[in-house]
Structure formats: structure tokens, C-alpha cells
Amino acid sequence: MINQRRQLTTQYCARCGAEIPAGRLKAIPDTLVCVKCSEEIGGEFELKVTVSGTAKAGSLKITGQQVDVKRQRKLLRPKR
After folding, report:
1. Does residue 59 fall inside a structural domain?
2. How far does CA 65 lie from the centroid of its chain?
């Protein structure tokens, strides 16, 4: 129910103040910028990827790898 209310609310870009299209909000519900500003800044989010191997202590053989991906929002500065 909360998601339905959020989709009905108009949201505005944190950089330029333009209305964020409903299609973008549907695809990326937590977006804060419009498509144009997202393209200008090279995307709103950065992905931080960490790869770690799992092996026995002292062994050179890696038995598996664990990949951790975290999404971080870039610092958004108002458009001048």
C-alpha cells in the first residue's frame, strides 16, 4: 500500500527540479534524479564490488569465491 501511494506522488529531480517521469520511478523507485541529470553525472549510483576467496588457512587452493556487491548513491550537487 505504501508503494502504491509513492507511485501516485509526483517527485522532482534533486539536481534540476524537473519532474521525474513515472516510468523511471517505476523502474528505479528510490531515484532522486531525472534521466537527463543521471546521464550528465554518469549514473546516480556506484557499485562497490568485493571478491573474497574461501580457502583453508595456509592453502593456496581457492575452493570458492564470494562476491559482495553494494550500491552507493553518488553525492548529488544541485545543477548550476
Report:
1. yes
2. 24
Residues of the chain with pLDDT under 70: 1-8, 54-56, 59, 62-63
Please report whether residue 79 resides in a domain: no
pLDDT of residue 1: 46
pLDDT at 16 (0 to 100): 93
User: Is 0.85 surpassed by the pTM of this model?
Assistant: no
Q: In which domain, by residue range, is 17 found?
A: 2-73
Q: Which residue has the cell 534533486?
A: 14
Distance CA 43, CA 29 (A): 15
In 10-63, the DSSP E strands lie at 45-54
Cα 52 to Cα 30: distance, rounded to the nearest angstrom: 29
Give the total number of structural domains in the chain. Answer: 1
| Alpha-helix residue ranges (DSSP H) falling in the chain | 2-8, 22-27, 35-40
